[in-house]
Write a structure and sequence with these properties.
single chain; alpha+beta; 2 domains; Glutaredoxin
Length: about 200
C-alpha cells in the first residue's frame, strides 16, 4: 500500500509539473497572438476613422471616404463662404494643385455651425467656391461639426484629435494609413510652414 501511495504521489507530481509546463507554453504561444490581435484591432480602428459615407456637394452621389481615398494623405477642412478665413480657399486649392499628383487630397465640408457664415444653398456654395476661388478639390454636403451635433465623420475626427473645430477652416491631417496625425486651428494657413512640412513628410 505504501508503494502504491508513493507511486500515486509521484504521478500527481508529474501531472502537476506537466500542467505548469503546458500553461507556460500556452502563454508563450498566446502572447504573440494576443499582440497580433491587438495590432489588427488597432489597424481596424484606424481604418474606421474614414469609413463613413458622405454626399457630394450639390449632388446625389454618396462616397465612402475610406474606399475613395485609401492610401492618400487627406486634409479635411470645415469651410464657410462668409468668414474672415474664407480667403484660405485660395491656399487650400494651391496646396491641392501642388501635391495632388504625389498623393494629397483636400476635402472640404461646408458648415453653418459658426455665426451663420455658411447660410446659402449647396448650389450657391458650389458656385461661390468655383467662381471665386477656382476650387477643384472635392467638396461635400453641408455638415455639422460642433459637439454635440457633429456628423459621424466629425465625431470620429474630434475623438481621435481630442478636439472639435472651434471655428471655420479647422484642419485635420490624416496619413496614408488612415490615421489622424495632426489637428490645426483656423489660424493655421494652408501655406504655413508647419503644415506644408508635415504634409511633405507624409507624401
Amino acid at each position: 500500500m505504501r508503494i502504491k501511495h508513493k507511486r500515486a504521489n509521484a504521478t500527481n507530481g508529474f501531472l502537476a509539473m506537466k500542467s505548469l509546463f503546458l500553461i507556460a507554453v500556452g502563454l508563450l504561444i498566446l502572447g504573440p497572438r494576443t499582440a497580433v490581435a491587438a495590432e489588427v484591432e488597432k489597424h481596424a480602428e484606424d481604418k474606421a476613422l474614414l469609413d463613413v459615407v458622405v454626399r457630394t456637394l450639390n449632388g446625389k452621389q454618396e462616397v465612402n471616404l475610406n474606399s475613395a481615398y485609401h492610401g492618400k494623405v487627406v486634409l479635411i477642412v470645415n469651410t464657410a463662404s462668409k468668414c474672415g478665413f474664407t480667403y484660405q480657399y485660395d491656399g487650400l486649392e494651391k496646396l491641392y494643385a501642388r501635391y495632388k499628383d504625389r498623393g494629397l487630397v483636400v476635402l472640404g465640408f461646408p458648415s453653418n455651425d459658426f455665426a451663420n457664415q455658411e447660410p446659402g444653398t449647396e448650389k450657391q456654395i458650389q458656385d461661390f467656391c468655383r467662381l471665386t476661388y477656382g476650387v477643384q478639390f472635392p467638396m461635400f454636403a453641408k455638415t455639422r461639426v460642433i459637439k454635440p451635433y457633429a456628423d459621424p465623420l466629425y465625431q470620429r475626427l474630434a475623438e481621435a484629435a481630442g478636439e472639435y473645430p472651434a471655428w471655420n477652416f479647422h484642419k485635420y491631417l490624416i496619413n496614408r494609413d488612415g490615421r489622424l496625425v495632426a489637428s490645426y486651428s483656423s489660424s493655421t494657413k494652408p501655406e504655413s510652414k508647419k503644415l506644408v512640412e508635415k504634409i511633405e513628410s507624409l507624401l
